[in-house]
Amino acid sequence: QIVKLADYRPTDFVLLGVDMTLRLFEGHTDVMTVLAFERREGVAIDAPLGLDGDGLILDSIALDGEILSPARYDATPDALVVRELPANGPFELRLENRIAPEENTELMGLYRSNGIWCTQCEAEGFRRITYFPDRPDVLAPYRVRIEAEKAVAPVLLSNGNPIETGELPEGRHYAVWDDPFKKPSYLFAVVAGDLDALHDSFVTTSGRTVALGVYTEKGRAPQAAYAMDALKRSMAWDERRFGREYDLDVFNVVAIADFNMGAMENKGLNVFNHKYVLLDQDLATDGDYAGVETVIAHEYFHNWTGNRITCRDWFQLCLKEGLTVYRDQEFSADERERTVQRIASVRRLKAHQFPEDQGPLQHPVRPAEYREINNFYTATVYDKGAEVVRMIATLLGETDFRAGMDLYFERHDGDAATIEDFIACFEEAGGLDLSQFSLWYAQAGTPTLTVTESWDPEQRQHTVSLRQSLARGAAGTGTEPMVVPVRFGLVGGNGEDRHAESEVSGAARLKGDLIVLSGGDATITFTGLSDRPYLSVLRDFSAPVMLDHEQSEAERLALGRLDPNLFNRWRALDDLIAEGLTLAARRPLGDGQPALKDAIVDALLATAGDDEIDPAFRAQALTLPAETDIARQLRDNVDPDRVHQVADAARAAIGTRGLASFERLSAERATTEPFSPDAASVGRRALANAALAYRCAATGDPAAALAQYQAASNMTDRLGALAILAHRFSGDDASRSALDDFYRRFEHDDLVLDKWFALQATAPTHDAVETVERLANHPRFTMRNPNRVRTVVGSFAAVNQVAFHRPDGAGYRWVADKLAALDRINPQIAARIATTFRAWRSFEPGRRAKLKETLRQISEIKGLSKDLKDIVDRSRK
Ligand code: ARG
Ligand code: ZN
């Protein structure tokens, strides 16, 4: 069953209001739903009302207070159809059904996690609770009454404002919540249980006081302090930067141990994977802090971009997700350091979105069809979606972009909107035509931007030619030229941007430091230059393209030193390293040539050792491109062992050449300074840990890592050292004893234990296949907890290129086996992990055949879920 964008039409009946009662008992929950409807104008009198269900059994149905005769309706687990409804005026349907949250292992709809009742309804989970028009364009106010045993569930939460609580017989109690803001069912939420909470408040600019609560499992509320802090900073930032205030009297966040995704933006009641809420100062890494801050901000920002303005249908998913990722990226850039944040986002885009966009699971930012919507919460929709919004901001400039956003909020508040609605606001605010630009939403694939330059010493002019091209990929969408904003500068030998007269020919226009390329190619001639400048293009990664810029090594090394645009200063070196590694990986093993030339290593070392530069930036520079990124750039005949050897040789070479500097940088670490999660401290720790890794790569001696592991006063340093031991010295005594020690110290905390599982599952050695088999039989492993499955099976398949792709196919077989078992418990997670098979075509013939065969075997699993089948079928194409 394929759903198509082109088939959209509104419902026949308008939903006016929802009144629900959930009676929670041990083992079952009784649901009573009262839905007020009205026939939409112009809809035929005999049109039936169709509601969605998923695995439901209807117990009773009444229309305007009267039990309905069976002739008037058909109820199956998946649908309820009611006939002969009033021709005009509102009517009320009252439905009753019973569900079993305790047996819900998919974690969609209402389920229980460590005894806590909670919900996840996006995208289509609400239909697992009650029959309903479960689609995002059906908006209504909700009133929800929850009843439960007081001792088991003293806390009863739902969306909106609390309006009533009271006692019931037999030790039970109830709470009523009222959400006045119309919303679609995917934003519905209920949480009930014995929870602790951290309470605070926030006063909005217009003077309203909002009660804030972060709810956790018993005893963990103190660990929510940073999440609360991040929430208040997010609220203040959205007022400052976008003029958006919070609208209800309360805002609650709940941390749940078993959760399929990062978090969910339910109106007034965000539900989180507890990994993105809980931080214990002694147990959390800097990365964990950054994760909490980003996800808290992201879900909070959805209140306007997602909730007040939602999506007309799921094809418009990027309308809320791309925009909200853009907003959370901007928040992090403002709160931390802009260039370092941008480097991290671009790295992420290249590591996850580029491969998706260049393989069989390719789809446009706004897909035109789907079989299973859960499989479209992708890097393309989220991260490329954010890049598209960023390009709009770049094209319009700060003032007009803000005006466009203001118009969007004003015009579409309360709407279920489309990408076209969104774009129209920026066309009006910026006074420009974005119809060609909109191709970014419709055409899949990563365009290539080819840049060539030539210097004319006689005329003292520099000519820059740009060409864009887009290959047709698996999605089969168009390949028309798009609007590509290229931020640039002409850098002089003094490290300053030169000003030059310019003349454009071809399909581009020049706007300050921006070339807006709109056709296949264009040439720009810069005149009046005293000498040849260094061309710095695609500054800040101003468009999500692959850059093919023929530039000499000397020029790039110069830009790596001089470019006033810090992002491009980083990229100049990163590109040189990536190209060096890619070329080396193409050469046969043991040809005697170094993976990286000395000049490149020296440039890297100069940056790393320069105390004038921000440590966080230097740490980014020292982070080599991901091995999966090298593999993508190789395109075909990839041998992951070879890629790993090359990267490892490069690390050893860099480490050896810079040993003195790395010893200094790793020894200077501030173990004595009290832990603080601020950006400057984070940067210092990142640099010291990167230096330690190079130092161990050079010496082949685990002693320095072991010493740091033992002396560490915070988790970032301890885990940084343990990662070196577990990966570089996997199997050695030092590694084994440190891992054992880590387990003993932290086995009480599941979130820390996940790190112990993940480090071992990602050790780049062939015997990690046996390791993960052992881990999967560990008493603390369970298929029921998504985080645990992701850290063992997911990270093995997605990160461990050496073991997953072991030449004998044992890694593939192991993952396929786990997927078969997992699919029966939690198909959404199984489908997500299975996407790692999509790259099969790019490998050398032996692995290619085995990957292909494994995909075929997975496709033949009996009772395969729709989720997993969709991924496997598309990957095989
Ligand atoms: N809307 C959530 C967020 O990005 C994610 C929901 C994911 N849902 C899913 N079915 N995969 O904040
Ligand atoms: Zn989101």
From TrEMBL:
Domain Peptidase M1 alanyl aminopeptidase C-terminal span(s) in chain numbering: 554-875
SUPFAM superfamilies: Leukotriene A4 hydrolase N-terminal domain, Metalloproteases ('zincins'), catalytic domain
Keywords of this entry: Aminopeptidase, Hydrolase, Metal-binding, Metalloprotease, Protease, Zinc
Domain (Peptidase M1 membrane alanine aminopeptidase) ranges: 226-437
Residues in Peptidase M1 alanyl aminopeptidase Ig-like fold domain copies: 445-549
Domain Aminopeptidase N-like N-terminal: 99-187
Cross-referenced Pfam families: DUF3458, DUF3458_C, Peptidase_M1, Peptidase_M1_N
InterPro entries: Aminopeptidase_N-like_N, Aminopeptidase_N-like_N_sf, PepN_Ig-like_sf, Peptidase_M1, Peptidase_M1_dom, Peptidase_M1_pepN, Peptidase_M1_pepN_C, Peptidase_M1_pepN_C_sf
Cofactor(s) required for function per UniProt: Zn(2+)
Molecular function as annotated in GO: alanyl aminopeptidase activity
Reactions mediated catalytically: Release of an N-terminal amino acid, Xaa-|-Yaa- from a peptide, amide or arylamide. Xaa is preferably Ala, but may be most amino acids including Pro (slow action). When a terminal hydrophobic residue is followed by a prolyl residue, the two may be released as an intact Xaa-Pro dipeptide
This protein's record includes keyword Protease: yes
The keyword Ribonucleoprotein is assigned to this record: no
EC number(s) from the headed UniProt entry: 3.4.11.2
Top enzyme class: hydrolase
Family: Belongs to the peptidase M1 family.
Protein name: Aminopeptidase N
Organism name: Jiella pelagia
Lineage: Bacteria, Pseudomonadati, Pseudomonadota, Alphaproteobacteria, Hyphomicrobiales
